[in-house]
């Protein structure tokens, strides 16, 4: 009888775990699909998406991806935010979330990419006074990501993006940016994410920069 009860309990736990895993995958798939849609890139929609990822993270405390995507959505909100007074609070939330992701997944090139973006977002508040502080920090995170995984296309996207938008007097170079972005597209062509919820963003942005469409 005890053995039967033990087997019953084990089966119940396994079924519960599978159901929870399915709910997690479904929730993540839905939100990541929204981030894949260019129409989502406005402050309100991105903020809504980040809020959902934070709720998922609060439930799935051992999963790094919800924190990662919450941070990504928040830093993207900062980039499309016209009110500069709102950028630092968004960057603060993104930094807190990506640090939580980092605590769950050490030495991740994808996490280093988000940390680079957070530093870049902070520059936007006041480029003349903040560039000297956050520019090197952003660049350091890009180099860390490249050392961890030189095949990650997002590394070259961020490197090319930095060269594209940085004034020439401070090291920017649009010709080098184009070369680096071409490398990014080559890496994107060869890149295969482990699943549909693993990081895979950036190819559209690389194409926009190469075509001179990015603002």
Task: Provide a descriptive summary of the structure in words.
By secondary structure, this protein is mainly α. It has one domain (26-210): Tetratricopeptide repeat domain (Serine Threonine Protein Phosphatase 5, Tetratricopeptide repeat, Alpha Horseshoe), CATH 1.25.40.10. 74% of the residues lie in helices and 0% in strands. The protein has 9 helices and no strands. It has helices at residues 2-35, 43-59, 65-80, 87-104, 109-123, 127-148, 153-165, 174-190, 203-210. Helix 1 packs antiparallel against helix 2 (43-59) and helix 5 (109-123) runs antiparallel to helix 6. The longest helix is centred in the N-terminal third of the chain and has 34 residues, at 2-35. Mean pLDDT is 91; it is low at 4-19.
What structural class do you assign from the helix and strand content?
mainly alpha
Q: What gap, in angstroms, lies between the N and C termini?
A: 70 Å
How many domains? The number is: 1
What proportion of the residues form beta strands (DSSP E)? under 5%
CATH topology: Serine Threonine Protein Phosphatase 5, Tetratricopeptide repeat
Count up the helices.
Answer: 9
Protein name: Tetratricopeptide repeat protein
Keywords: Signal
Organism: Chitinophaga agrisoli
Signal peptide: 1-19
Can you summarize this structure?
The protein is an all-alpha fold. The chain contains 9 helices and no strands.
Secondary structure elements and their pairing?
Blueprint lengths: L1 H34 L7 H17 L5 H16 L6 H18 L4 H15 L3 H22 L4 H13 L8 H17 L12 H8 L5
Helix pairs in contact: 1-2, 2-3, 3-4, 3-5, 4-5, 5-6, 6-7, 7-8, 7-9, 8-9
